[in-house]
Amino acid sequence: MQVGPASQHLPVKSGLERVAVVILTYNQRDMTLRCLDSLQEDDDQPFDILLWDNGSADGTAEAVAAAFPGVMLHESADNLGVAGGRNAAARLAFEKLHPTYLLFLDNDMVVEPGFVKALLAPLRADDRVGQTQAKLRFVNDPERLNDGGGCDISFILGRT
Asked: In whole angstroms, how far apart are CA 143 and each of 68, 135, 136?
């Protein structure tokens, strides 16, 4: 197990909740670097980043370590799959980073500045709110919303 330091580029400011952004990757170096690069522009709300590399063999971990030394990087010896990787990454984030909030991102996502703060706003405004989600837009067609799962539902048959 290899774990790097918690983010140093975005220190937690006094009085603000601690947020851990958890990103899972597997053999998608360029997408992962683009995702991490977009997060660097978001400084409205401090957060730590934990990248769980699910056994990549394409140099993802090395590229991330070189380009983003403040990212906590974990290289898994085995590919645990999406659910297994996210669960293991969440446990590690809670153990090492002690966040108030946990935010999961897919490594193919590109975020806009203010993204983290905007997701936290409903949680701060109403204690009955337990989770939030961003609008997912296609990078090549930002006016079009992505359903996030690509599942077509037949309203005639009532099934997918």
From this structure: 31, 11, 10
Its pTM stands at: 0.78
* CATH T-level topology, domain 19-127: Spore Coat Polysaccharide Biosynthesis Protein SpsA; Chain A (3.90.550)
> Please, what are the averages of pLDDT over each run of 10 residues along the chain (160 residues)?
40 64 97 94 83 96 96 95 96 95 92 88 89 76 66 59
Domain residue ranges of the chain, discontinuous segments joined by +: 19-127
Q: Counting beta carbons within 10 angstroms of the beta carbon of residue 123, is it exposed (0 to 12), middle (13 to 18) or buried (19 or more)? A: middle
Nearest Cα residue to 75 out of 99, 57, 52: 52
CA distances from 124 to 19, 76, 84, 159 (A): 13, 34, 29, 37
Q: Compute the half-sphere exposure of residue 117: CA atoms within 13 Å on the CB side of its CA.
A: 10
* DSSP symbols for 3-60: B-PPPSSSPPPTTSPPEEEEEEESS-HHHHHHHHHHHHT--SS--EEEEEE-S-SSSH
